[in-house]
Amino acid sequence: MARRELRDDQWKHIKDVLPGKASDPGRTATDNRKFVDAVLWIARTGAQWHELPESFGARNSVFQRYNQWSNAGV
């Protein structure tokens, strides 16, 4: 079972406004939910990026995506 920071009902409310959907131009996101859960885990725990559990994906990839979304104002 995947580690989740968001409940299913919470995810349902935000999933369609995030970039990277199949209908968006450019690259389609592999797993927006896992990425959002990773960012929320960092925020909740106060941990540094290098402490992100492997279950959330490659730490550097998550960090780089966070920077891209942050710079884009997402």
3D architecture notes:
The protein is mainly alpha-helical and 74 residues long. It has a domain of 44 residues. It is built from 3 helices and no strands. The protein is globular and about 35 Å long. The termini are far apart.
Helix and strand topology:
Layout: H1 8-14, H2 32-45, H3 59-72
From the alpha carbons, calculate the radius of gyration and give it in angstroms.
12 Å
Helix content: 40-55%
Beta strand %: under 5%
Q: Helical segment tally?
A: 3
- Quaternary status: single chain
Q: Give the strand tally.
A: 0
Shape: globular
Q: Helices and strands, in N-to-C order?
A: HHH
Which runs of at least 5 residues are low in confidence (pLDDT < 50)? Answer: none
* Head-to-tail CA distance between termini: 28 Å
Please tell me the overall pLDDT.
87
Strand count, sense and barrel status of the largest sheet are: none
Classify the secondary structure makeup into a structural class: mainly alpha
Summed up, what is this model?
The chain has 74 residues and is mostly helical. The chain is 47% helix and 0% strand.
Looking at this protein, list some descriptive labels.
mainly alpha, globular, 74 residues
